[in-house]
Amino acid sequence: MLGRSPEDRDLTWVRICATLFPIELVKNKTVEDLAARVRPLLDDTAAVAAAVQRAAPDPRDLLDPEQRRGRADGYTQHVLYVEPDRSFSIVGLVWQPGQKTPVHDHVCWCVVAVVQGEEHETLYERRGGRLVPASTTCNGPGSVSACEPPGDIHRVSNAGDEVAISLHVYGADVEARGTSIRRCYEVAR
Ligand SMILES: [Fe+2]
Description:
Oligomer: single chain
Bound molecules: fe (ii) ion
CATH superfamily: Jelly Rolls
Largest sheet: 5 strands, antiparallel
Radius of gyration: 16 Å
CATH class: Mainly Beta
């Protein structure tokens, strides 16, 4: 479509995917307990991260076997919980080997706990008007990280040889938006 940037088209594709593969709200005791731990801490992202680390959820308590296998056509998102006042969401993401996100940022704060496999996160920064990789971390089971916009432009990939699963707490209503992504970015290869 004329007048639309590549980044806008990428984000449109993310939203189309959310429509094609609609999210399903599956509540269970593990996520309900996690929501109860997180609820009083929403104004302190570091405290949310510490609570998620203490909870140390097992992927088998979050997702069923089919969900834990992932899909060959792209990483999958399962919205597990949305707070009744829509102030935060808990989401499970499943990555088969080699799958990755576009370079993107978020509309809200996020806490990420890797519960299976290995996720590589590359952070980007602006230099000379371009986005360039600034750092890459390898996050294995038990690792918990937090990010808050602005300055959260990143890409996540599964560079390992087994399915990776991570639990995400977002300070937004992911069920209503379909995604926590604010914008996707094109970067030089
Ligand atoms: Fe992200």
